[in-house]
Design a protein that fits this description.
Largest sheet: 3 strands, antiparallel
Shape: globular
Strand content: 15-25%
Strand order of the largest sheet: 1-2-3
Helix content: 25-40%
Radius of gyration: 14 Å
Number of helices: 1
Structural class: alpha+beta
Number of strands: 3
């Protein structure tokens, strides 16, 4: 078993749902009614996404660095 350290972003949409996205796993996203539910859902989606990549022999991206930037406009 390999442990992956991947970034997850949670955003609130116009309808009040919480969208969870894993940017390193292209196309891996889900939503929940609360941030906590979105985290549970994205964890499951990420496991399935990684398992599918492994079965197909597709490389799993390795995150080297992540940062949050404040931008004033």
């Amino acid at each position: 078993m390999h442990i992956y350290d991947l970034t997850v972003i949670i955003q609130k949409d116009e309808d009040g749902n919480f969208l969870a996205v894993c940017p390193s796993l292209q196309g891996c996203y889900t939503q929940g009614a609360t941030p906590e539910e979105a985290l549970v859902m994205i964890r499951d989606a990420m496991k399935l996404h990684i398992a599918s990549r492994q079965e197909k022999g597709i490389r799993i991206p390795v995150e080297i660095y992540s940062s949050q930037l404040k931008i004033a406009v």
